Give the backbone structure.
Amino acid sequence: MRALIAAATGLAVALALVLTLTALGTPAGETSPKPLLTTVPAHP
């Protein structure tokens, strides 16, 4: 029974965190116009 209560509490906390972040919205700022390169460009 304690495990069930602990799981329900954890789920409630996680849901509250998600709802809080959703309510706050995206942070103000600008994104970079340059794309991020994750690999080394190939040389022909």
